[in-house]
Amino acid sequence: MNTDYYTLGRTGLRVSRLALGTMTFGTDWGWGADKETARALFNAYADAGGNFYDTADGYTGGISETWLGEFIAERSLRDRAVVATKFTFNGEPGNPNAGGNGRKNILRAVDASLKRLGTDYIDLYILHCWDRLTPAEEAMRTLDDLVRAGKIRHVGLSDVPGWYAGRAQAVAELRGWEPVSSIQLEYSLVQRNIEHEFVPFGAAHGVGVTVWSPLGSGLLSGKYKPGAQGQGRLETLRGSTNPGFQKFTERNWRIVAELEAVAKEAGRSMASVALNWVANRPGIASVILGATKVDQLQANLAALDFTLDPALTARLDEVSRPDTPFPYSFFGDETQGMITGGAAVGDKPDGYRANVRIPAGAGAGVT
Ligand SMILES: NC(=O)c1ccc[n+]([C@@H]2O[C@H](COP(=O)([O-])OP(=O)(O)OC[C@H]3O[C@@H](n4cnc5c(N)ncnc54)[C@H](OP(=O)(O)O)[C@@H]3O)[C@@H](O)[C@H]2O)c1
Asked: What was the pLDDT predicted at 136?
């Protein structure tokens, strides 16, 4: 495993470029790992030098947090481990205030997560999903209170609209509250929509983009074929109405076919090429690995140990290029020419980032 650490956002927190996702810790959802396997996944990651663990209060009914806390304690790794967890999803059916991003739920959720994790602080506390209701001011002020109370160290967002993320960051900066350091979103060869809004947001505002489902829930491992039955999460969830699991589309099969050809030429597995591609995209701080088996994880941990030939990268860029809907379609070269009066305005030289507060020494992708 590549043991380089990146700083998360503008913080002094150093995290592995490959994080360990623990959404598969527990079999409650029908596609995870039992406790022995989860412990082996944890140990394989820790032994390889990884330090960044991702969980959520809603994963497998709290089992994920509980086991992660136990595994960290078993090896006395709490000081070494960077633990990210999340709140939003409801912990008590029938009680509308046991979910969402309001102050009452955040304060309930943080204590429940601390208890399950068996720790007295969370390194990165993440708003899991926009609840379409709570003002960014309420969530950000509450999260700042938690930093001051010593219960959490840093603040993250996940699965929110771009305008909400921008407002959350602006209000935190204006009020001197703890800013957003990380934004966790789905990103892979089969899901590149975040490139329009969130990657530029992260680069401009010091927010590290952390990637979930980098293999499209396993699709990019190549083990699923059109019209055939496969084995794994996507097969278990075939017919699911959750948009994250609807991966068997004509467009995606074209991407998988090109990935297969590229991986063959590179002499690497499809999964490692897909992970390498996404980790090296601009603005990406960390990629969260998911696995149900130790051999999957061992193979994926080697995904950054090689450099993909630029010609092969270009083929993957091309086959997976996302549509450019309005208003992004309006920001292209033609419009820019109308703005600059036809004068050529090139990119700023390296190191000239007057309007972008990125720490000295940080390069592309290190936000
Ligand atoms: N913030 C959010 O809303 C959000 C949402 C989703 C996930 N996440 C986080 O992101 C983490 C990773 O997401 P993900 O699990 O969806 O990632 P993923 O990399 O897209 O999918 C991982 C799954 O693919 C299969 N797989 C992985 N490596 C493989 C290999 N080498 N060969 C064959 N199959 C392989 C395994 O499932 P099977 O064995 O079942 O096929 C594995 O569980 C999660 O654990 C969680 O921490 C966050």
From this structure: 98
